[in-house]
From TrEMBL, chain A:
GO terms for molecular function: ATP binding; ATP hydrolysis activity; ATPase-coupled transmembrane transporter activity. GO terms for cellular component: ATP-binding cassette (ABC) transporter complex. Keywords: ATP-binding, Cell membrane, Membrane, Nucleotide-binding, Translocase, Transport. This is Energy-coupling factor transport system ATP-binding protein. SMART domains: AAA. The keyword Repressor does not apply. Signal peptide: none annotated. It comes from Scopulibacillus darangshiensis. Residues 9-237, 266-489 form the ABC transporter domain. The lineage of its organism: Bacteria, Bacillati, Bacillota, Bacilli, Bacillales. It comes from the Bacteria. Belongs to the ABC transporter superfamily. The keyword Translocase applies.
TrEMBL record, chain B:
The chain crosses the membrane at residues 12-34, 40-58, 63-83, 235-257. This is Energy-coupling factor transport system permease protein. Pfam families: CbiQ. Its main location: membrane. It comes from Scopulibacillus darangshiensis. GO terms for biological process: cobalt ion transport. It comes from the Bacteria.
């Protein structure tokens, strides 16, 4: 125990295994840290870094019972923890009550509470006119700041941040890290995170794990970023320059479509989508054609998802919407943000064949097709598993695969790369590009500007439910001008009826 | 109750929730022992009027809830009216027999159903869940783990509601609607259940861990953000309720609408 006290906090020779798993997740792991250090735990998903963090604060095994053993352990007395999911870390309905709950737990007198609540909310930049506000009405980024405020209310010596921005858009991510930077002066901070561009300047030490849960290196942030690029790339970490590392400095070349042919697939005319009986998006005119990759961008609440859901008949709309495809039920497909909602069977292979089954396709043909798709989406090893048992990346691949198996002509995607690591994101994007080349039209809601600049041929910016901007990207202009061999201009005023 | 549903605050909101709960529970028991149809009519009338006076619920929602209560009351009364025993038969058709006695009993049961719903609504629409559970912890020493457990569950209801719509949309997109027949309907219900439950169970588990990370524990004592105490409103409340019950009993003797003073006879 003595050695640890001198070194601060940490754990020595930790052995930990989740029940029913053959292999140990963490084996003979030793990790020390000192007061005032700002540490980033990096590694591929599922390598056990988040589990290690829960051990370091004592949540494992006190609150989450997992069999574990360690020779020496030193846990800080006062610590705060911010979790990944903004929707599952509050127990009260109102902002002030949530922080009050933390204060109550520490037996702080009621008289002192209102002032403290204000203090912590101000510290994280949540300047609400009235702190008695429904948590439900906050954006994801604001919820995570509230979670940070309630962690601060514990007056922690050590702050543990467990992928706090995994479910936030780029703006929310930037704001949250800005807040963290301001409030953690002189405090010890331990972070697990995949998107690291915003935090590198305040992290001074990185611990890098491999997929077996072993520490491969531990040192100053700069050294690791320069000397371990290969591992960062392999583990799908969003390190600065990851896009350039994969695709170079410019956008994607635009090859000619496999069959050159112009066609408009969808046309909207005075199209207004209603959410909760209120008009949310109004589009005077819009057409989307063959071989286009349209990204829909804009701030939260601008109506991006609403527009997509309106196109899919999931919300009520007024105006005209016409599809120029063989069959708009099967040839237009939609991939949701949360893949789990879309799973309708108990096995990965059944999941893939489901929509073909609905169409009463010949069973032999289905089997062949499913086999091919399992290999294409690298899900062959998991084919007998339950979809819920897959990793985040695998779930996303399965949800995309099971929608794309019908070979749709129009693919609508609602933030398909959301919460995915770099490796999975690139694989998905390349896959969509493959479909586009075959002539499909891709309509994608995204916050990631790199996708817009590198892959999209056209970008539509929505603001307050209206089209603010509808432009071809550089890549799209090349497609129209035919510099890369597309040869024909895509004329949006014309449309063909099948 | 949801903030959007409540449109006004009446003095019933100021009554101590635990005490209000106790009085309402006592009323339920009193209701069980009333066999005089006239008393039941007056009691229902009195509480119906006081519900209208004191509820904070928006009018349309209030109307639909009362309408539902009315339908329930009619359903429960008809079982007694159509098939009850009695000597003075008014109407007979095959196995349906309506007698004066069964009519009285049926009305009595129907009124009781309506009365209970109205009393329940009077409590539910004038009490904020947070204050109710804080009051339970402070006045009757309810263990915090149950109180906060319920509060956390309240928070999840709107999330589940939204999730339900997302799942419905996702199922539609996957072509669940294209499959027809009883088996397809069964698998659809099963999918909804699995999707909703698995999300909720995991969310509940994560919330529990997050609560412990915020140092929530059973052992230590705690302070309260909302201090719930008794006030003069409580006395007024008890007098009002007692007054209403007494008035109903007196009116039933002074102005009886029916000759049935004991429906059990």
């Amino acid at each position: 125990m003595m050695s640890l006290i001198n070194k601060g906090f940490g754990v020595e020779n930790l052995r930990l295994a989740f029940p029913k798993q053959k292999e140990m997740l963490l084996k003979d792991l030793t990790c020390h840290y000192k007061k005032g250090e700002k540490i980033l735990l990096l590694g591929p998903s599922g390598c056990g870094k988040s589990t290690l963090m829960k051990v370091l604060c004592g949540l494992i095994p006190q609150s989450i019972e997992v069999p574990m053993k360690a020779d020496n352990m030193s846990i800080p007395d006062k610590w705060g923890y911010v979790f990944q999911d903004p929707d599952s870390q509050f127990c009260m309905s109102y902002v002030d009550e949530e922080i009050a709950f933390v204060l109550e737990n520490q037996q702080i007198p009621q008289n002192d509470m209102p002032a403290l609540i204000d203090k912590y909310l101000k510290a994280v930049g949540l300047d609400l006119e009235n702190s008695h506000m429904l948590i439900q009405e906050l954006s994801g980024g604001m919820k995570q700041r509230l979670a940070t405020a309630s962690a601060l209310a514990l007056d922690p010596d050590v702050l543990f941040l467990d992928e706090p921005t995994a479910m936030l858009d780029p703006e929310g991510t930037r704001d949250l890290w800005e807040t963290v930077r301001q409030i953690t002066h002189g405090k010890t901070v331990v972070v697990v995170e995949h998107k690291i561009d915003h935090i590198l300047d305040f992290i001074d030490r990185i611990i890098l794990f491999n997929e077996n849960g072993e520490i491969i290196t531990d040192g100053p942030a700069d050294d690791i970023l320069t000397n371990y690029q290969k591992q960062l790339k392999e583990y799908g970490i969003w390190y600065p320059g990851v896009w350039e590392g994969r695709y170079g400095e410019t956008d994607m070349a635009i090859d000619p479509l496999e069959q050159a042919e112009q066609r408009v697939y969808m046309k909207l005319d005075h199209f207004t989508v209603y959410r909760k009986k209120r008009p949310k998006v109004s589009i005077p005119e819009l057409s989307i054609g063959r071989g286009e990759w349209v990204t829909i961008i804009g701030e939260n609440g601008a109506g991006k998802s609403t527009l997509l859901e309106g196109m899919m008949d999931l919300l009520k709309y007024k105006g005209e919407k016409r599809w120029f495809v063989e069959n708009d039920e099967t040839k237009v497909s939609f991939v949701f943000q949360n893949p789990e909602f879309q799973f309708v069977t108990d096995r990965v292979s059944e999941e893939l064949g489901f929509s073909l089954n609905v169409k009463n396709m010949d069973p032999d043909k289905i089997e062949k097709k499913v086999k091919a798709e399992l290999i294409r989406f690298s899900l062959n090893k998991q084919k007998d598993q339950h979809p819920y048992q897959l990793s985040t990346g695998q779930k996303r691949r399965l949800s995309v695969a099971s929608t794309l198996i019908e070979e749709p002509t129009v693919i609508l995607l609602d933030e398909p790369t959301f919460g995915q690591d770099a490796k999975n994101t690139f694989e998905l994007l390349e896959l969509f590009e493959g479909f586009r080349k075959k002539g499909a039209a891709i309509v994608m809601v995204t916050h990631e500007m790199e996708i817009v600049h590198r892959f999209a041929t056209r970008a539509i910016r929505l603001a307050n439910g209206n089209i603010d901007e509808d432009k071809l990207t550089a890549r799209g202009r090349r497609q129209v001008d035919g510099e890369d061999g597309y040869g024909q201009k895509l004329d949006h005023s014309q449309h063909m009826v099948l | 109750m949801d903030r959007n549903w409540i449109i006004r605050s009446t003095w019933f909101y100021n009554v101590n929730p635990a005490l209000k709960f106790g009085v309402i529970a006592a009323l339920f028991i009193v209701g069980l022992f009333i066999h005089n149809l006239n008393t039941m009519i007056w009691l229902t009338g009195c509480f119906f009027v006081s519900y209208l006076l004191f509820t904070g619920l928006a009018k349309m929602i209030s109307f639909w809830l009362l309408f539902t209560a009315f339908i329930l009351a009619i359903l429960s009364s008809t079982t007694m009216i159509f098939f009850g025993k009695g000597d003075h038969v008014l109407f007979q058709w095959h196995f349906l027999i309506i007698s004066e006695e069964s009519l009285a009993r049926g009305l009595h049961i129907g009124l009781r159903t309506f009365l209970y719903t109205v009393i329940g609504m009077l409590f539910a629409t004038t009490t904020r869940p947070v204050q109710f559970f804080y009051s339970l912890m402070q006045q009757i020493k309810c263990p915090p783990k149950y109180a906060y457990g319920f509060l956390a569950a309240f928070r999840m209801l709107p999330i589940m509601y939204e999730e339900f719509y997302t799942i419905r949309a996702a199922m539609k997109v996957r072509g669940m609607d294209r499959k027809k027949g009883i088996k397809a309907r069964y698998t659809k219900i099963k999918r909804y259940a699995i999707a909703l439950l698995s999300q909720s169970i995991r969310r509940a588990q994560r919330t529990a861990v997050a609560m412990e990370a915020k140092r929530f524990s059973e052992t230590s004592g705690r302070t309260y953000y909302y201090i719930m105490t008794y006030s003069r409103y409580d006395l007024v409340f008890i007098i009002t309720i007692a007054g209403l019950v007494a008035a109903a009993f007196w009116l039933s003797v002074a102005f009886p609408f029916t000759p049935y003073t004991n429906v059990l006879e």
